[in-house]
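Posted in: Structural Biology > Protein-Ligand Complexes

Title: Requesting predicted complex, magnesium ion in pocket

I'd be grateful if someone could produce the 3D structure tokens for the following input. Sequence and ligand are given below.
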Amino acid sequence: MDAPALQCHATTKHFGDFTAVHDINLEVKAGEIFALLGPNGAGKTTLIGCISGLSRPTSGHIQVFGYDVVKQFRTTRALVGVVPQEVSFDPFFTPHQALMIQMGIMGVPPNAKRADELLELFSLSSKRDAYTRNLSGGMKRRLLVAKALVHKPKLLFLDEPTAGVDVELRQELWSEVKRLRNQEGTTIILTTHYLEEAEHLADRVGVIDHGELKLVENTEQLMQRFSQSQVLFRLGRALENIPPGLPAGATLQTAQELLIPWNTPEELSAAINKVQAHVLIEDCQVRHTSLEEIFVRLIKPHSEDKETSI
Ligand SMILES: Nc1ncnc2c1ncn2[C@@H]1O[C@H](COP(=O)(O)OP(=O)(O)OP(=O)(O)O)[C@@H](O)[C@H]1O
Ligand SMILES: [Mg+2]
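-- Reply #1 --
Done. Output follows.
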């Protein structure tokens, strides 16, 4: 299939007069792993609901592999799998039964062998016939992923796959996500609060906040852009322009505050020399950005950003 795995065009979702998703334009290529990052209530689950057909966008349209998710719902439903944020099962079914039932729901012929393969793949074979209520939290989460895969979706959503799971299971889920993409060519879109998760897995990252997509960027570039050390100079007088010869990325935060990224001690010394050749330095602070800070900065409005960043 040549069409992108996902195209959202001006997608908006209102609940009454509340806007949960606002004018989102997004394209995800087939075979990509894309991470949607955002704080609680940002609109991640709502957007997934609109794409997977659980709810209808109020306006705009969405295509999955070129098919419209509203007009060609049956086709797109077969192409999409969703691992929901909330863990919920009928507690009296066994994992094997849960998978067989899911096949029925998804309109694929129930296939006991496929169910066993999925249980094996997610290390659940020993719990094949146990009540799902007796599975551990991590096992339940693995079963949710297995359920989402019964119909071999080409586009898989993982909504907060590692919220509240231990380190070991997180690693397991990460390798399964990579395997699905590398071996089966599955396109994967995951939501997460953790930039670290996005950094490990995703080719590209989108940041959503208050229903708006604030940024979409290649993960490596994003990390590079933000993980640099920076030096903030307070200047003896206001500048209108950035003095010449400073590294790319130097910005005037205010007329008297100049922020310069640096990577090596040589670059830091050179930055100090160049600035003081132009203007008196009243103060300077060096900082190293942590992953947490990057995320906070990405989702905060610019004015708040300045208050907290130094
Ligand atoms: N069915 C609904 N009716 C009314 N408001 C809703 C409904 N579903 C979601 N919302 C609101 O839309 C906003 C976005 O919710 P959503 O669940 O998409 O956020 P999220 O990014 O997935 O957050 P989290 O990280 O907490 O899962 C929230 O303010 C939420 O209260
Ligand atoms: Mg959510």
